[in-house]
Structure prediction request, 73 residues.
Amino acid sequence: METKRRARLKWKSYFSPTPKRIRVLGDSLAVASIFVAGLNLEDAQVMMACAICGGLGKFISNFIDIDNGVDKS
Prediction:
């Protein structure tokens, strides 16, 4: 019997282990935003927007948990 796996955003998932693919995606987003911010040193608004987007993306990726269809309550 095959169970469906879904990625879900939950408050309780922040401290649970993040799946590897999601963690790599969040880290890549943070690194790319820092790289783009570093390229735009003369424009402070673009630099700040890139830094905020990267940090927010990394933070949100910590809330993703893979649900295997099993009730954990």
Observations:
- The longest helix spans residues 20-39.
